[in-house]
Known about the structure:
Layout: E1 6-7, H1 9-24, H2 31-50, E2 55-56, H3 58-92
Parallel strand pairs: 1-2
Amino acid sequence: MDPEPASSSKARAVFALGVVALLTGPLVGGVIPATTALLLARQTHRQQYLSGGYLTGSAWVRRGRRLAWAGIILALTALVVAAIAGLLHLAGTPGRDFGANTD
């Protein structure tokens, strides 16, 4: 009389959001789907634990969580590179040019 194991639809959503986060991570827009994926992964993991093994899809959740973290790391890397490029641009600009007869 045990129920049949069922696939979790949230697990696939976590994976899809993780892929979107990975693809848009370098554009810094990947933080939003990554955060959503991580929050949804926590809910899904809790539901799978409470189901006693009848809710499957933990591999999808695990892969989606890894992809989401990779998207966050790519977004942070893009921000650091942009900050360094901005600082180098500011450092390369010359100061004021005074006339030849000015001390």
